[in-house]
Every structure is written in structure tokens, then in C-alpha cells.
Design brief:
Blueprint: H1 6-27, H2 34-41, H3 45-51, H4 55-80, H5 84-99, H6 104-118, H7 122-148, H8 159-180, H9 186-197, H10 207-210
Helix pairs in contact: 1-2, 1-4, 4-5, 4-7, 6-7, 6-8, 7-8
Length: about 220
């Protein structure tokens, strides 16, 4: 292999990751062979193993690259927003666009396959947990900004707890859409999510969550 400059090596590595991701989305993680990745990336098997020592390393790189791309895009949304209200509008638009992505089902299938693999592969599990933790921390930072600007009640909102809930809802909506297909009311689910976020579905927290006695009727 001819000697490449560091930036050329990094560019080629990213190209291989994108090629592998395309194969994984098309055929699934387990069904994709390294030969298929080589064909997609226009590289020889020897060239592939110059960058990645195993298929596990490739899927780990796909997870990390996908996470970095998403978080970087969201980070730029916050930086370009004048205040937290406009930041929430940008994030809401991104969320709606993601839920209507025609490739979302394939992305969700791949995530489910990766999650199943993490149950028996601790190294991959650590990488996957770190990738979702990065997303959660980004959400936490947005929520803290909302607390500073008065969108959230700083005395009652737990940034990590709320970020964890929103992330779990987002994952659940994706899985629900994959399983229920045409029976899944994505628009209604999203409207309900934003009503819930705005506190317009209920005004009182259940007593079992507050640890306090119910007020007298």
C-alpha cells in the first residue's frame, strides 16, 4: 500500500466506515461480510485490515462515527441559536425530520441488532453505552440552558432524569414505528410528546413519584 498522509488516511478510514454502514443498513450486521464491505469501499481485504483489525472494530467505528455526526449537528444548532427557545425549535425540527426519514426503519433495525450483540459482547456494549451517554449529555446541556433561561423550573427539574426520559421516548418511538408500521400514528405520538413536555397533559405528579402525601380533596 502506498504511503499516505495522515489526512488521507483519515479520509480513507471515514470512507470505509460509511461503506460499512451502508452495507449494515442494507443487509444487517451479521449478514454483512467483510468482502461486501471491501466491494462497497473499493478496497482489497488486505487494505481493509490495514485500517481495521476485525469486523467488531468496524461496527464499533460505525457506532462512534454515527454518534459524533449526530451530536456535532445538534451542538451546532445550539451554538447558532440566539436563545434556548430557538434552540428547542431547531431540535424539534431535527426530531420531526428524523422520525420521517425514509431510511429510519433500517437504522432502527441495525440499532436493535447492535443492542442484541452488546448483550454478549462487553467491549461493544461499552462503546454503545458511551455513544448514547454522549447524546444524553448533550440533552442535559440543553435542559440546563433551559433552566438558566427560565424554560424549566430549576428547583424541580432533574437534567439527567429528563434527558434520560426524552432519549428513552425517542428510542421507543423508533421501535414502535418499526413494529407497528401503518398502525403507528407518528404525528399523534409526536404531538402528545410535545404536549407532555409542555406540561399540558397533567398538572399534578403522582404521589408515588413525589414521596409526598396527596392533598386533601
Amino acid at each position: 500500500m502506498p504511503k499516505l498522509k495522515p489526512e488521507e488516511l483519515e479520509t480513507r478510514r471515514r470512507e470505509i466506515i460509511e461503506a460499512a454502514r451502508a452495507c449494515f443498513l442494507r443487509n444487517g450486521f451479521h449478514q454483512t461480510t467483510t468482502d461486501e464491505i471491501c466491494r462497497e469501499a473499493s478496497i482489497t481485504p488486505g487494505g481493509l485490515y490495514h485500517y481495521f483489525g476485525s469486523k467488531e472494530e468496524i461496527i464499533s467505528a460505525v457506532i462512534q462515527q454515527s454518534t459524533n455526526n449526530t451530536v456535532e449537528r445538534l451542538r451546532l444548532m445550539i451554538e447558532d441559536s440566539g436563545d434556548v427557545h430557538s434552540a428547542f425549535r431547531e431540535v424539534s425540527s431535527f426530531f420531526f425530520a428524523t422520525m420521517r426519514d425514509p431510511d429510519l426503519d433500517n437504522i432502527t433495525r441495525l440499532d436493535i441488532e447492535i443492542w442484541a450483540e452488546t448483550l454478549k459482547n462487553e467491549k461493544l456494549a461499552q462503546i454503545n453505552r458511551a455513544s448514547w451517554a454522549l447524546r444524553r449529555r448533550w440533552l442535559e446541556s440543553l435542559i440546563r440552558r433551559g433552566m438558566e433561561e427560565g424554560v424549566y423550573n430549576a428547583e424541580s427539574v432533574d437534567p439527567k432524569g429528563l434527558a434520560s426520559l426524552l432519549l428513552a421516548i425517542f428510542i421507543g418511538l423508533r421501535v414502535e414505528g418499526l413494529l407497528w408500521r401503518e398502525d403507528f400514528d407518528v404525528a399523534g405520538a409526536l404531538r402528545s410528546l410535545f404536549l407532555m413536555h409542555a406540561g399540558r397533559l397533567t398538572a399534578q405528579m403522582p404521589v408515588e413519584l413525589t414521596g409526598q402525601a396527596s392533598p386533601a380533596a
